[in-house]
Specification:
This protein is an alpha+beta fold. The protein is built from six helices and three strands. The longest helix is centred in the last third of the chain and has 15 residues, at 97-111. The protein starts with 8 loop residues before the first helix and ends in a 5-residue tail after the last helix.
Amino acid sequence: MPSQKHDHGLLVREVRHDLPSDELLCDLSDLFKIFGDTTRIKILYSLFEADLCVCAITELLGASQSAVSHQLKILKDNNLVSSRREGKQMIYSLADDHVRDIIEKGFEHLTEKEGE
């Protein structure tokens, strides 16, 4: 039986056309790196429940205020959390529902086999 060469040129061209730019894919990769730190994930999960000040997050995580502040700055610089001033305190919250969606989808993926 003669071997047939698999022609995938059209499919490759279609997929290549639909791929986002390298710059956008790099930005997406950087976004997922932000989620690669347990302390940041704990902070985000805490903010699912309520808007919190640094001292409350520090108490919840059992971490130093400087460590929490550092992680909050990273989250804020990447538009994952927002803040507002209430008197002398900064109150932090999730920037938008997309942040919750990203983490919930990741958690759902991790736990989907447990329910079977």
